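Worked example

This section walks through a single chain of length 40. The input is the sequence exactly as stored; nothing has been trimmed or padded.
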Amino acid sequence: MRLSMRRTAYVTATIEMHTQQTFIATLLDVLGHVRLVPAD
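Given that input, the structure is written out below as C-alpha cells.
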C-alpha cells in the first residue's frame, strides 16, 4: 500500500475514533453518570 493511502487510512481511522469518543462523552454528560452493575 502506498504511503499516501496509508496516511489517508490513518487519518480516517483517527477521525472515526474521535467521533466515537465524543459521542460517548456527550452521552455520559446527558445521562449524568454510569450506574455500577453488580458482579455475578
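What to look for: Residues 3-31 form the longest helix (29 residues).
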